[in-house]
Design brief:
Length: about 475
């Protein structure tokens, strides 16, 4: 079960410490949010799951982290200076500003219904900032509106430093900035947000095959994060961006309907071609600006045929903030209990849960129980599974309820049995089933480690094997 309305989702996120409005005490800044103690953990876990699936579990993708600020010419040749704009319409009656392509009815103001509207004008989405001590309007840089360009600019660096051959990818996550005309739907349309993007470089004639493969891989990843298949769909772009040969969005059913969480784009040779010097030496498929500024060729020489060409790019571009609301929304569950009461549980997959274990000492005033609880907490926090907390509330029922609500998969309770019984058992209580099992204190580390170990190593191995076969086929 998901939340019913957007308002419910926003209030849940605030109340439980996931997301706060940025600069709230001064009235807030539209389209900008801060993450709270649980939000920062959840986002880190989503990011790690993404990174693990692309960089750690595969042998054909490298990670990079590029700067937020980059040379202005990057954005000239990427096409952003000319084309990265939205059509802005202003209502002459109430002065609301709207993005034409997102209006409910293009002839009427979304806010007041007036038909007295300005003509659409191009509004540049990139944000500028001043660089250096002189503020004369010419020494500025753009804050990146996507992470992708940094990965393209480092294509040759990664290729050479890591001794790579095609096909291979570059993954990068990080903040991007867009001066969105109408930030809305909470974390959905922000002015500052985090992207998780991967650029996969392939020989030109294999692009469609790889585009299809990446669609499936990324769809599968969303399923593994806990989104049911029925809440996801592919939507092919009707209007293609200037760089794209074909593009599809993975859409999730948000409380307001289906909307994009990730784009899978066949960007052909547009990006590497755009940043290449001596473009005339190549047959570049995409329409690129002439480039007299670049100092290098973003090309690849096939070691088998000796032919030099510009690789095509398949991009997978996800947003971590959109992922957060989708995953919280999906995990939110209200359950009727046999006693007629309702229990709220955040059924996040355990690898995404902000808190992995809460250690609950049953009697706050008993020093032996407290000390034992602290020892257990210490043992568990050494496991490297993520955040373990000592829940010193003195009310076990409340502690369980609170941890159900924030999605903690297990609570470990230390009580008088732990002190008095043979083998000193602690109680492990499961969030989803509410079942409780007794575990000897000496085994609790092993138990929890097993609980958090990956469920499907065999599938991972098979996936890796399939990819290595596919790559060999590509080289034949
Ligand atoms: P939209 O059509 O919604 O404006 P887009 O097609 O411009 O999105 P991309 O440029 O493909 O988005 O960016 C890749 C991903 O980055 C998107 O799928 C989304 O998850 C995320 N993203 C893009 N813009 C925003 C934003 N303003 N706020 C939050 N996330 C965003």
């Amino acid at each position: 079960m998901a939340v019913r309305t957007m308002e419910e989702l926003v209030s849940l996120c605030k109340k439980r410490g996931f997301v706060f409005q940025s600069s709230e005490i001064y009235g807030g800044l539209r389209g900008v949010y801060d993450l709270g103690p649980l939000g920062v953990e959840l986002k880190k876990n989503i990011r790690n799951a993404w990174w693990r699936s692309l960089v750690y579990e595969r042998d054909d993708i490298e990670g990079v982290e590029c700067s937020h600020l980059s040379h202005r010419l990057v954005w000239k040749h990427s096409g952003h200076e000319d084309t990265f704009s939205d059509p802005l319409i202003e209502c002459k009656t109430c002065h609301s500003r709207m993005r034409q392509d997102k209006m409910k009815d293009e002839t009427k103001c979304d806010t007041c219904g007036s038909s007295d509207l300005t003509d659409p004008k191009k509004f540049l989405l990139m944000m500028k900032t001043n660089i250096g001590p002189v503020d004369d309007g010419s020494s500025f840089a753009y804050l990146r509106p996507e992470t992708a360009q940094g990965s393209y600019l480092n294509f040759e660096n990664v290729l050479l430093s890591m001794g790579r051959k095609l096909p291979f990818g570059i993954a990068q996550h990080g903040k991007s900035f867009r001066n969105e005309i109408t930030p809305k739907n909470f974390l959905f349309r922000l002015r500052e947000f985090e992207q998780a993007e991967m650029q996969f470089f392939v020989p030109p004639e294999t692009d469609i095959e790889w585009w299809e493969k990446w669609k499936n891989i990324r769809h599968q990843w969303w399923l593994e994060q806990g989104i049911p298949a029925g809440k996801l769909r592919f939507k092919d772009h009707e209007q293609l961006a200037h760089y794209a040969k074909c593009a599809t969005d993975i859409e999730y059913e948000f409380p307001w309907g289906f909307d994009e969480i990730e784009g899978i784009h066949d960007r052909q040779d547009f990006d590497l071609g755009s940043h290449t010097k001596s473009q005339e030496d190549f047959k570049i498929n995409a329409k690129v600006l002439p480039n007299k500024d670049s100092t290098t060729r973003m090309s690849y020489r096939d070691p088998f045929t000796g032919k030099e060409f510009i690789p095509f790019v398949i991009e997978t571009a996800a947003g971590l903030d959109r992922a957060m609301i989708a995953l919280i929304n999906e995990a939110y569950t209200e359950e009727k209990l046999p006693n007629g009461k309702t229990r709220t549980v955040l059924k996040l997959k355990k690898h995404l849960a902000p808190i992995k274990v809460a250690v609950v000492p049953l009697a706050k005033n008993n020093p032996d129980i407290m000390m034992t609880g602290m020892k257990v907490r210490r043992v568990l926090s050494e496991l490297g599974i993520g955040r373990v907390v000592f829940e010193n509330s003195n009310n076990i029922g409340k502690a369980y309820r609170r941890h159900d609500e924030i999605g903690t998969p297990i609570c470990v309770t230390v009580d008088f049995d732990t002190l008095e019984k043979e083998n000193h058992p602690v109680t492990v209580r499961d969030r989803d089933t509410m079942e409780q099992v007794s575990v000897n204190i000496a085994d609790i580390g092993k138990y929890v480690k097993k609980f958090y170990s990956r469920e499907t190593p065999q599938q991972d191995v098979e996936r890796l094997y399939q990819f290595s076969k596919m790559k060999e086929k590509g080289r034949e």
